[in-house]
Structures are given as structure tokens and as C-alpha cells.
């Protein structure tokens, strides 16, 4: 089992948990839980594989991510009522999922020999699109667009870290580990300490 396969499995589990938590907030039935969990778990990786022309798409060649996501959805369906703040759980689960999925996307692009720009973009896409699909389908404000928080910039910073580490001659394994670390620290720091980038503020009209 390769490191990319392990990353895909881990991302599927954590993203599925966040998707199922969002499904609980929307009060869906158990099939709805499974659908949202699977959509969140494999959405970003599916876009990645289609854009990279990886054949077959990772969960079609190996359906284990779908099975893992479905199992997580069932577990959350019967336990979500025990969680005091499901929104907080969604947000923090998403930080870990992002830190796993970004190196999975960047690593897949590296494995196929793509250059730095594509590596960074695939890391960002894999990390953010599954959660974006989840939030749009469940009519939630997408976490990726939450004002005043770092999100997509965390994915970009992590993927750039991997590119730079490989450029300095480090193997892919440590580079992807560095990618995960930078992604999680910046995202968690945004939540815990309010780190953010400047946002656009329109100037008042001249009198």
C-alpha cells in the first residue's frame, strides 16, 4: 500500500465524518448521511484525478474510500446527538481533513511528473472541493469562503511547502509530511488565534 493510498483513505475517513456532521445539522435520513459523507470524502480527489487524467479515478479502482465513508456516515448517524456543538466539530474535523487531502493531491501530481504550478493547484483542489460540494449541497456557508479565516490559502501554503522541500532535494515522503504540517498549523491557527489575510473593503464614495 503506497503513501498516496493511505492519504486517500485517511482523507476519506475524516472528510466523511465532517460531511456526516453537516448532514446531521440538515436532519437528513441515513441514506442522505451516506451520500453527503461520500460526496465530501471523494469529491476533491475525483476532480483531481479527472484533471490529471488518472485512470481509473481512485475510488473506482479501489472502492475502499466509499466503504470507509459509508461506515463513518452510519456511525455518525447514531452518535451525532451526543455531540454538544456539531458545527465546531465540523470546523475542526475539516482542519485535519484539509491537512491530509492537500498532500494527497500534491503527491498525486508529483507522482505523475507535473511541475510546481500543477502540484500546488492539485493540492488546493483536493483539499477544498469536497468540503465545498458538501456545504453547497447542504445549504451551508462554505468554509472555504468564510470571511476573515484562512482556508484555501492554507492549502496553497502547504502545497508550496512540499514543492520547495522537493526542490531542495528532500524525498517526497518528508515533503508531504511538511505539507500536512504547514496546512494544519495555518488552518488551526486561523481558528484558534484569528490569523487572517486582509479582506477587500470598498472605499466610501467621494462626496
Automatic annotation (TrEMBL):
Pfam families recorded: Gly_transporter (PF03458)
Claim: Transmembrane helix is one of the keywords in the record: yes
Keywords annotated in UniProt: Cell membrane, Membrane, Transmembrane, Transmembrane helix
Membrane topology value: Multi-pass membrane protein
Annotated ranges, domain Glycine transporter: 6-80, 92-165
Membrane-crossing residue ranges in chain numbering: 6-23, 30-51, 63-83, 90-110, 116-137, 149-169
Highest taxon in the source lineage: Bacteria
Subcellular location: Cell membrane
InterPro entries recorded: Gly_transporter
Similarity section: Belongs to the UPF0126 family.
PANTHER family reported in the protein's UniProt record: INNER MEMBRANE PROTEIN, UPF0126 INNER MEMBRANE PROTEIN YADS-RELATED
Protein name (database record): Trimeric intracellular cation channel family protein
Source organism of the structure: Tritonibacter scottomollicae (Epibacterium scottomollicae)
Amino acid at each position: 500500500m503506497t503513501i498516496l493510498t493511505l492519504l486517500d483513505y485517511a482523507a476519506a475517513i475524516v472528510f466523511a465524518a465532517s460531511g456526516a456532521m453537516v448532514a446531521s445539522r440538515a436532519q437528513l435520513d441515513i441514506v442522505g448521511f451516506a451520500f453527503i459523507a461520500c460526496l465530501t470524502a471523494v469529491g476533491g480527489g475525483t476532480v483531481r484525478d479527472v484533471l490529471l487524467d488518472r485512470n481509473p479515478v481512485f475510488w473506482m479502482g479501489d472502492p475502499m474510500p466509499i466503504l470507509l465513508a459509508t461506515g463513518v456516515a452510519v456511525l455518525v448517524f447514531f452518535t451525532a446527538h451526543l455531540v454538544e456543538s456539531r458545527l465546531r466539530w465540523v470546523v475542526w474535523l475539516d482542519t485535519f481533513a484539509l491537512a491530509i487531502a492537500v498532500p494527497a493531491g500534491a503527491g498525486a501530481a508529483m507522482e505523475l511528473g507535473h511541475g510546481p504550478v500543477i502540484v500546488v493547484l492539485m493540492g488546493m483542489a483536493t483539499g477544498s472541493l469536497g468540503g465545498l460540494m458538501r456545504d453547497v449541497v447542504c445549504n451551508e456557508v462554505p468554509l472555504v469562503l468564510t470571511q476573515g479565516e484562512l482556508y484555501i490559502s492554507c492549502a496553497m501554503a502547504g502545497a508550496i511547502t512540499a514543492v520547495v522541500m522537493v526542490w531542495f532535494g528532500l524525498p517526497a515522503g518528508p515533503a508531504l509530511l511538511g505539507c500536512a504540517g504547514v496546512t494544519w498549523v495555518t488552518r488551526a491557527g486561523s481558528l484558534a488565534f484569528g490569523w487572517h489575510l486582509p479582506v477587500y473593503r470598498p472605499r466610501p464614495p467621494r462626496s
